[in-house]
Amino acid sequence: MDKHHHHNLLHVMTPFPQCVAFGASLDEASALMEEHGIHHLPVREDDGDVVGMLTEQDVATARMAARERGDQLTVGDVCRREVYVVEITRSLAATIRDMAQRRADYALVKRDDHLAGIVTTTDLCLLLADILDPQIDDIIA
C-alpha cells in the first residue's frame, strides 16, 4: 500500500522536513536543498520556532540580485515571513482548497504546536496521479 492510499495529511506529507537556520547563508540553504532533493526549507529561529519559508526560487532570485550588488545575503534576508500552517488533524481536502485559494505551493503541518511535516504541490500531484491511475508505478518518488 503506497503512502497516498489513505488520502489524509499524515500519509501525504513529508514527515520531519529539513529546516534551515534564520541566520544561515544562502549557500548553506542551497546545499541542503540539493543534498536532500527538496525545493522548500522551513526557516527556524534559534529557539526552534518556524519563522519563515525559503524556496529554491527565492534563493535563485536573491542570488541574481545579490550578484549585482555584491551582497552576502542570509536566509533571514530572503525567506518569506508569512507561512501557511495547518494542524495535522485538518482534512486534506480543506488544506488543498486553502492552498489553491492562497496560491501556496506548500503547507507546513503541525502537531501539538511542533512541526510534523510539509505538504507540497509535488506531493499533491503524486497523490492525484495515484488516484487517476493507481496501476502506474510511482517513478518520481
Question: Would you write up a description of this structure?
Answer:
With 141 residues, this protein is α/β, with parallel strands linked by helices. The chain has one domain: CBS-domain (Roll), CATH 3.10.580. It contains six helices and seven strands. It has a four-stranded mixed sheet with strand order 1-7-6-5. The longest helix has 14 residues. The chain is globular and about 50 Å long.
Summarize the structure.
By secondary structure, this protein is α/β, with parallel strands linked by helices.
Strand-pairing-aware structural class: alpha/beta
Enumerate how many helices there are, as a single number: 6
Mean pLDDT score: 88
Topology pattern, helix = H, strand = E = HEEHEEHHEHEEH
- Percent of residues in helices comes to 25-40%
